[in-house]
Amino acid sequence: MVWILAFCPLVPRGAIVMFDSIPPIGWQILGEFHGRFPMGTDTFGGSLGGTTRHSHTLTGMVSYGESMPLASSGDSFPADLIPPHSHTVPVITTDTASNIPPYRTFIFAKALMDFDYLPRNAVIMSYTRSLGPGWTDITLGMIKLFPRGDTLNPGIIGGIGFDIHSHFFRGTTSYDNPSVRVYVGPGGYFAPAHPHAHTFEGVTGAALIQPPFRTVRFWKAISEPAYYSDSQAILMFDTLPSSCWTKITDFTGRIPKADTVTGINGGSSYHSHTVSTFLSRQDTAAWGIGLLGDYGPTYTPWIHQHWISFSPTSTESHIPPYRTVIFAMFTPSSDVEETIRLNEGTEVEAYNVEGKKVAHFKGETSELSKLKKGVYILVLKEGKTKRIKKYIKAK
């Protein structure tokens, strides 16, 4: 008895696979992946989003009070301290920082037809520690990295230093016009001060960020043809795959990340920064006090400072440019029980998942019973017609 996996090619038409070289004929390079990361979706793939950089806004408040006077008059008469006053702080926008996480580039391509194997340099994902002969585990070489599309240059590593970042900012307070009391002769006068403002600049606190991710292993085909069985191989799709594939909903809104510990979700979509309280810089321009009457001496600038306190920055997205796909795992089932019946003269070649020929005969269905339990690929030749089937020998 044989369990047939009908209409279940190993690589269905429309499947999206990463390549570490230019893919062969039968594969279409997907230009929309250039500079983008694959992000899981639960319905239909192909949408674009994300940005390469981000900035934040922040608001602050200036302390109310006076500061040390460093001015004196041009004659012997003293001047009062600057009266208590304050300033307002406008909404400030920080400089920008990168949204691009640590990455390794691949060429993303779509299968234009059903394939029963994967070509050399194809790269797929899985949760398992082994994908069988013909594959090499490249996870350690890209540990903690995210796959990013590039239509010409696979194998480039970049984005290092993204995880921890801060932002620089600077600004100017509102202008204020406090008056001061100047004593001249027997009387005194209030002389208005010239409007003044304060400049300030600083650096936000650091933030540790990563985009939403799910950890997987990455495997590269080092021989052709390369096969896999029910070993949790993961491919990408634009449409819902066949019944031989199980959609991985845990990838929804997440990007695959290379790690030897698989199936872990992490990261986030948004972040903010703290900002410390600090002293503003001195006045942006010198300002003096002109006296009334015939005296007319001019005072040197009153130089003072204020404490400025800031709220945390605005919360902003750090999602990098992405292209959505459906992630699905190869999980062939044996729901339909049928007996394979071969026409007289049908030539049969049976291969195991390692690509090794294990049987070759003509028209004898009983020969299949001699195969051990496992997954096989049959090449059925009838005259000039050749058919390929995948099936599981259940017992």
Mean model confidence by pLDDT: 79
What's the helical proportion of residues?
under 10%
The portion of residues forming beta strands comes to 35-45%
Please mark out the parts with pLDDT under 50 across 5 or more consecutive residues, or reply none: 1-7, 67-80, 283-300, 334-338
Q: What is the total tally of β strands?
A: 36
Describe the structure in your own words:
Among the domains are: 2-53 and 97-163 and 211-270 and 318-330, no CATH class; 339-393, no CATH class. The strands form 9 sheets. The protein has a 15-stranded mixed sheet that branches. Strands 32-1-36-35-33-34 form a 6-stranded antiparallel sheet, with no helix packed on it. Strand 33 and strand 34 (357-362) form a beta hairpin. The chain has strands at residues 2-5, 16-19, 27-29, 37-40, 48-49, 53-54, 57-58, 60-62, 92-93, 97-98, 103-111, 122-126, 135-137, 146-149, 157-158, 164-165, 168-172, 179-184, 187-192, 199-203, 207-208, 213-221, 233-237, 245-247, 255-258, 265-266, 270-271, 278-279, 307-310, 316-317, 322-330, 337-338, 347-352, 357-362, 374-382, 385-393. It has no helices and 36 strands. It is mainly beta and 395 residues long. Mean pLDDT is 79; it is low at 1-7, 67-80, 283-300 and 334-338. It is rod-shaped and about 110 Å long.
Mind sketching the topology for me?
Blueprint: E1 2-5, E2 16-19, E3 27-29, E4 37-40, E5 48-49, E6 53-54, E7 57-58, E8 60-62, E9 92-93, E10 97-98, E11 103-111, E12 122-126, E13 135-137, E14 146-149, E15 157-158, E16 164-165, E17 168-172, E18 179-184, E19 187-192, E20 199-203, E21 207-208, E22 213-221, E23 233-237, E24 245-247, E25 255-258, E26 265-266, E27 270-271, E28 278-279, E29 307-310, E30 316-317, E31 322-330, E32 337-338, E33 347-352, E34 357-362, E35 374-382, E36 385-393
Parallel strand pairs: 4-31, 11-14, 22-25
Antiparallel strand pairs: 1-32, 1-36, 2-11, 2-12, 3-11, 5-31, 6-10, 7-9, 8-29, 11-15, 12-22, 12-23, 13-22, 16-21, 17-20, 18-19, 22-26, 23-31, 24-31, 27-30, 28-29, 33-34, 33-35, 35-36
